[in-house]
Design goal:
Elements (H helix, E strand, L loop, with lengths): L1 H14 L3 E12 L2 E12 L3 E5 L6 H8 L7 E6 L2 E5 L5 H8 L2 E4 L11 H13 L3 H14 L15 H13 L5 E5 L7 H16 L3 E5 L3 H6 L3 E6 L2 E6 L1 H6 L4 H11 L2
Parallel strand pairs: 3-8, 3-9, 6-7, 7-8
Antiparallel strand pairs: 1-2, 1-4, 4-5, 9-10
Helix pairs in contact: 4-5, 4-6, 5-6, 6-7
């Protein structure tokens, strides 16, 4: 009884947290093809959202629309109070202000091969935040320690495994002190065993209260770590809800077919 009551209190507290991300009627087209079809989504501060669904559902494009790497054709995007109306000319200051709150980790690591691991993390801080090299290096070492790679600071990325490079990419994103972290299939290019290293770091971030939106094919992560699962297909949200409910009793037949395909193979 106590556990049920505690969970209820926690859920009520979560419902009263401020909204970190708001998407309102977002549409994105590539030519004649509508990739994101009138999607609305709200993410509260400290919430972990897992976006799942079949290939071609528009999951990664939706993620890129949040920080305007892809500019929607219409709709409204608000991140930590910074609002942009798509379909109109976007003020560069508004764009920079919105992106300043968002860190993103991609499928590919996008590390500079000619720079050391430490320099990969420090340089963006110097350029974006105006930190001195000493300040940036100190922050970089804190984050490398956090992701378990302090001993790799002087190495070049090519001397690190795929899992290590992805953890370095996470540290680089965190170094800019974002309020929100976006993950686009961060383990898809990794062997399953190596991917566990990355997932462990993501679990720690979730436990620390970082607001996260994760496009993932890792169903166990979506089920066990996320606060809410969003299922997408054909550019639209099919359904969303508590992970346990979505995985055990999905409301839509399309969701049932997708989950059956990924869980039974």
């Amino acid at each position: 009884m106590t556990q049920v009551r505690n969970e209820s209190v926690m859920q009520q507290a979560a419902e009263h947290r401020p909204t970190a991300i708001s998407l309102e009627s977002v549409v994105k087209r590539f030519g004649e093809h509508t990739v994101i079809d009138d999607v609305s989504l709200s993410v509260r501060e400290g919430e972990v959202i897992a976006i799942i669904g079949p290939s071609g559902a528009g999951k990664s494009t939706l993620l890129r629309c949040i920080n305007l790497l892809e500019v929607p054709d219409s709709g409204r995007i608000t991140v930590e109070g910074n609002q942009v109306d798509a379909g109109t000319e976007i003020n560069q200051k508004d764009l920079v202000r919105l992106r300043r709150n968002v860190g993103m980790v991609f499928q590919s690591f996008n590390l500079f091969p000619h720079m050391s691991v430490l320099r990969n993390i420090s340089l963006p801080q110097e350029r974006v935040l105006g930190r001195t090299r000493a300040e940036a290096d100190a922050r970089s070492m804190q984050l490398l320690e956090r992701v378990g790679l302090a001993d790799k600071a002087g190495q070049y990325p090519s001397r690190c495994s795929g899992g290590q490079q992805q953890r370095i990419a996470i540290a680089r994103a965190l170094a800019l002190d974002p309020q929100v972290m976006l993950f686009d299939e961060p383990t898809s290019a990794l062997d399953p065993e190596v991917g566990l290293e990355v997932l462990a770091v993501m679990r720690e971030l979730a436990a620390d209260g970082m607001t996260m939106v994760v496009v993932t094919h890792e169903m166990q992560f979506a089920r066990d770590v996320s606060d809410r699962v969003v299922v997408m297909a054909e550019g639209a949200i099919l359904e969303e809800g508590d992970p346990a409910e979505v995985f055990t009793a999905p409301a839509k037949d399309r969701t049932r077919r997708f989950l059956r395909a990924v869980l039974e193979r």
